[in-house]
Amino acid sequence: MAEAQKSLESVKWNTRQRLQYIELMAFYTGVVTRSDVANTFGISDAAATKDLKLYGQLAPDNLIYKHNVFGFVPNTGFREVVTDLSPELVLPIIAGNLPHAGNPDRDKLVYGVPVDSLPLPTRLPDKHILAQILRATRHHKKLELSYHSLSDRESDNQRIIEPHSLINTGLRWHIRAYSEESFDFRDYVLSRITEARMLEVEGESSMKYDDDWVETISLEFTPHPGLSDAKREILMLDYNASNGIIRLNVKRALIGYVLQRLSVDTTTDHSLNPNAYQLVLMNRDEIEPFAGWALHQR
Prior knowledge:
A hairpin with a 4-residue loop joins strand 2 and strand 3. It is built from ten helices and twelve strands. With 298 residues, it is of the alpha+beta class.
């Protein structure tokens, strides 16, 4: 490990970005190909081959070439050599569609603007569990998992699902998937998955069959009537309201999360504290069929 690290330090930053991508792709999606590297970074196939060869020199036991996928797959005992593969660092990279993370001088602000974030609790699974989830999602395979739900039902926590998309609510991560148990699409909190195994079985469903995922609806808000006129005016400016209405187009599957994040008063009589719930939902009846759980939780 120390020898590999010493060699890695001599690699130029632009090359190291591609090595990070190779390592992340191999571990989390289960395969990385020459065309993956070439297309992502806009380089020639020959240059991509050179990067893959360099990665093999730095981590000689990590990857195995498989002719049936025309690419490299993780070897048993794979260990990170180039980058940190922890879920809290990798998921934002995937969400931002970024090929790599970090920079050679972490104290230097690339854009000259300091940015901080809230120190929220980490609610993520082990990286090996996440890798199985992402591999099943990318390769459209079925996923066997152990899931611990907060519902009061008495049933085994073993499930088989067919995942198609990740969801980041800002507070926690979910995987959107078809459930073989309930015969519908639903969300699973990643941190509640304690075991996961991608099955070598093609998924029978897909995103296009998930009506609540492909269909959008317009949420209509207005400032809480319990606020003063001055505060209401500020909020309408804050949310770029048009004719006193704040409109937001949202996937039907994500309505409940949006209502939670915006702290919307969804009660019929707008009875919640207006200082804590500054917006009210105007088209509640239209939304209820798709997000009843979010409307009746208070």
